[in-house]
């Protein structure tokens, strides 16, 4: 496969960014954060419609429960 131009000049990773990633990797995700991520995922994958908003997805998520 041909080399990608975007990767030809890749330099050293930013040390500050690496530290932030290391810290984030050790952090626990709360249930509330996970719920918001699910809402964001559902909204981002919804069909384009003026009637579908992030708030409407949030309201719908309160009525839909998955079996464990």
Explain this structure to me?
This protein is mainly α and 68 residues long. It contains three helices and no strands. It has helices spanning 15-26, 31-44, 54-63.
Sum up the structure in keywords.
about 70 residues; mainly alpha; about 0% strand
Per-chain topology:
Blueprint: H1 15-26, H2 31-44, H3 54-63
Helix pairs in contact: 2-3
Overall pLDDT: 87
Radius of gyration, whole Å: 19 Å
What letter string, H or E per element, gives the SSE order? HHH
Distance between the termini: 44 Å
Q: Mind describing the biggest β-sheet? A: none
| Uncertain stretches | none
Quaternary structure: single chain
Count of helical regions: 3
Q: Helix amount, in percent?
A: 40-55%
What is the strand tally?
0
Structural category? mainly alpha
Residues in β-strands, percent: under 5%
Shape call = flat
Give a quick summary of the entry.
With 68 residues, the chain is mostly helical. The chain has 3 helices and no strands.
